[in-house]
Write a structure and sequence with these properties.
The protein is of the alpha+beta class.
């Protein structure tokens, strides 16, 4: 057991301390899931540019070389000879197209802006969820670190009690059973300490992975997060949560896409221009020509595709409307449930702290009685075990209260909300 303890995790005072704010800041900079979300957001921010590109002019140029088998020359009466087909024919052409009236592009541009808003809101929601996970992992690891101190205290007490019992056994004042009990208590305390250290090491590694840094740090247990006590949390959640706002904008996007289908029934008008130059002169005797065209196109019947699209987009509008209502209903439920969980956690924490105070007083009085020869060793051992259990229980309830507070803040839209 001594060798096993030697290789387990120890919390050294020389190890740097990582605060909760530092952990959150590291996650903002280095969390890989957040980087993926931000990269996707940058991609979605190009939607408006892509939509506007359909309304901007397009210019194309081309060139050609042709080797003809015969040369063609036309001699006009009273005029010069014109080579209309040389052996080596060179040509170049430039085309310009500009949309003038393109009804289908109008809703597309508007919808692209909405889609960017949805992507922004979804990324913000991902950011809050990631930072919530980091905060919860921090509280968990910090609580396990505190549990190490509680189990270390029990081990130190049991070691001292074992040494004292050994002396009394040697003096013949206690039985062999008492000595064996003290050794068993010390062994169990060592096992509990190993488990506590390994649990802390695992939790610390999980936190280090979230913030992308080495797990060479200790933690400080932050106070329980403060929860707003004023205002309607449900109403504030419906106004502040990005996932609810994204559901509303998704409904706007579905309506915009349906409008886009209706706009496809309108005609399109565009302007086209072409310029050509070649070393072969035409019958007009010029090497270059140009033309400008005003084009109008109106699709009167496309086989019923637009009618199908209208029905499809109508179904998507109904889906987006249901999803919006679902998001709002889920928000109301989450806030109400999180509030109940937080109130229960607060009550449990109060009772756990009260039990801890009683356990400390019991342990102190039992220790005094034992030194006075009134209490037995078993009573002292039970008091020490009860004190450790109360310490660990209070730490656990503090963790549950902190996580419940974080969940309520997240449900109400307050946790890591960006300031305007």
């Amino acid at each position: 057991m001594i060798a096993l303890l030697a290789v387990t995790l120890t919390v050294s005072a020389a190890t740097p301390v990582l605060t909760l704010n530092e952990a959150l800041e590291a996650a903002r900079k280095d969390n890989l899931d957040l980087k993926v979300a931000q990269a996707r957001l940058e991609q979605s921010r190009l939607l408006s540019n892509r939509a506007w590109a359909g309304y901007l002019p397009t210019v194309t140029v081309s060139g050609s070389y042709t080797r003809n088998s015969n040369e063609a020359v036309v001699a006009l009466p009273g005029g010069p000879q014109i080579v209309i087909q040389p052996f080596n024919q060179l040509g170049a052409q430039a085309d310009l197209r500009q949309a003038i009236i393109a009804p289908s592009l109008w809703p597309a541009i508007h919808n692209a802006g909405i889609a960017e808003d949805v992507a922004e809101l979804n990324t913000e929601n991902v950011r809050r969820e990631i930072l919530f996970s980091v905060a919860a992992a921090y509280f968990s690891a910090a609580s396990l670190q505190e549990a190490i101190r509680a189990t270390q205290f029990l081990l130190d007490v049991n070691k001292s009690r074992e040494a004292d019992t050994q002396k009394r056994f040697d003096a013949g004042t206690v039985t062999k059973v008492a000595l064996l009990r003290s050794q068993l208590d010390r062994t169990r305390a060592e096992q509990d300490l190993v488990r506590a250290r390994n649990a802390f090491a695992s939790a610390r590694l999980a936190l280090a992975t979230l913030i992308q840094r080495d797990s060479d740090f200790t933690l400080e247990l932050p106070p329980v997060p403060q929860v707003p006590t004023e205002g309607d949390l449900v109403k504030q959640a419906l106004e502040q949560r990005p996932d609810v706002a994204a559901a509303r904008r998704n409904l706007d996007l579905a309506l915009g896409r349906k409008n886009g289908v209706w706009f496809s029934y309108l005609p399109n008008v565009s302007l086209a221009g072409t310029y050509r130059i070649s070393n072969a002169a035409g019958f007009a005797g010029q090497n270059d020509t140009w033309l400008v065209s005003l084009l109008a196109q109106w699709t009167l019947w496309d086989g019923g595709i637009r009618e199908i699209n209208v029905r499809e987009e109508s179904a998507r509008v109904a889906e987006a409307s249901a999803l919006q209502k679902q998001a709002e209903a889920r928000t109301v439920e989450e806030v109400s449930r999180a509030r109940l969980d937080y109130e229960n956690a607060q009550a449990n924490l109060t009772k756990a702290e009260e039990a801890l105070g009683l356990a400390r007083e019991t342990q102190r009085l039992t220790e005094i009685s034992f030194k006075a020869g009134v209490a037995t060793y078993l009573e002292v051992a039970d008091a020490n075990s009860a004190l450790t259990s109360s310490e660990v229980g209070a730490i656990s309830e503090r963790l549950q209260t902190s996580v419940a507070a974080l969940r309520l803040l997240r449900a109400a839209g307050f946790f890591e909300a960006k300031k305007e």
